[in-house]
Amino acid sequence: MLGIAAAVLFFIAFLINAADIATNDTFTSTNVMLIGLTVLALHVSGVGTGWGSRGRRR
């Protein structure tokens, strides 16, 4: 789920940069890209995967 959120944030950053949309200082394409990288790092580290610390049940 976090991987999809990261992809959406990267796409928004691309649109802001490609369309040269004037935004305020908070939502620049670089800031949105950094938020996307943070979400991607959380996804890769295993946050939000749904797997608990319990093992498999047999």
Automatic annotation (TrEMBL):
This is DUF4383 domain-containing protein. It comes from Streptomyces ortus. Keywords: Membrane, Signal, Transmembrane, Transmembrane helix. The chain crosses the membrane at residues 34-52. The lineage of its organism: Bacteria, Bacillati, Actinomycetota, Actinomycetes, Kitasatosporales. Residues 1-18 form the signal peptide.
